[in-house]
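Worked example 3. Consider a protein that binds LLP.
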Amino acid sequence: MIILRLYLSLNLISMAYYSIQGIQLTDLAQQFGTPLYVYDADKIREKISVLRGSLKGFPLSIKYACKANTNLSILRIMLQNGVDLDVVSPQELALGILAGYAGNQITFTPSGVDFSEIEFAVDKGAIVNLDNLSVLEKFGQKYGSTKPCLIRIKPHVFGGGNEKIMTAHPESKFGISIHQKEEILTIVDQYKIHVIGLHQHTGSDIKDGKTFQEAASALFDFAYDFKDLEIIDLGGGFKVPYSPEDPGVDMQDVGQLMSQSFLEFSRQYGRELRLWVEPGKFLVSEAGTFLAQATVVKNDPIKTFLGINTGLNHLIRPMMYGSYHYIFNASNANSASQKAYRVVGNICETDTFSFDFNGKQDERNLNEVQEGDIIALANAGAYGFTMASHYNSRYLPAEVLIDQGKAIVIRKRETLDDLTRNQVFP
Ligand code: LLP
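Given these inputs, the predicted complex is written out as structure tokens:
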């Protein structure tokens, strides 16, 4: 009985994936071609309001970590919904400004960059988040107390879906170690640096409220010696449901824990502080579906390979992290006809899309696939297109946004010109 109920509920969940705002995925594939990233604007708005509703009782700023998806149309949705930006390169900053952001709505949180990038960001009016002592000293020398900054702390906390996306543990390259408080304070005092906030980001794919709490309280304990704080920035990392079986983070629960401990800290600090969070995945991952076409069903004696017209060049998360993405046959809703497929790409590397929950290449049960069917990978709105490459000299996918029931192209499909544009061929 329980198994039947689970089966039925998973089936209902999976049916919900077949269309976006009433438009069938197969129609989108036919109209715009594949491979194709499609994004649901309503889903992004929904996630913004869930996040806002979960962090309550104090001033809050959401700083979208736009490395997850920098399409200008996505940035504009954020802007229109009162969400600021967190950027990690001068180019992301420039894209933010192109999308309509004012410099002071943007935070620059780079890792180990040349000081000229910090100067660029300050010139644009962005607030910088400094992540090493050397850059802190240069910042002091150049700006003294004339420009505000945040300092990124490494709290020595373990959190994140896999070791490649954990950023706060003792061996991580990110932030200034929490054990270097004296060195930080010496530089801050020497140049009278105007430190308006402290920042930490634990990692990505974190579900457990205790991990967020542990990192937050390490930062709070650290913060009392900084007297001019206005902001605490707790980063992003909220886990999204990469499979229908895994609901991801419970934002209400985690938000409540974070809110309580932040309010308690503000009280003890003696001033109302503003909380910043920097989600990437949480805001855009579920909004994105990646569509490809089945090019070959290869009935090998050992296993059945399902080859699709894309590869690790377009969605590298499975091969890079062993990440699970929910995959389904958008052309066949009949789940009575399932078969096990190893879903693979068309790149001249092993580029498997079907990983199990333990990061191992695996077979996936899909509704029976015919060559030509549209195969969809869910939860592809974050770190999909932005991590895509031209490997094997294939074009980047096109991108389509669904808003108010209409599908519009927000990035055209490439042509040979895009591959040769900057080549010098005397
Ligand atoms: N803030 C900082 C300082 C970050 O480094 C990151 C992500 C975020 C916020 C947003 O994290 P999110 O909310 O998206 O988990 N490519 C990997 C994820 C790398 C995350 C890098 N930093 C993936 O596809 O799983």
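Take a moment to read the result before moving on. The chain has two domains: 15-39+285-413, 70-279. The two ends are 71 Å apart (CA to CA).
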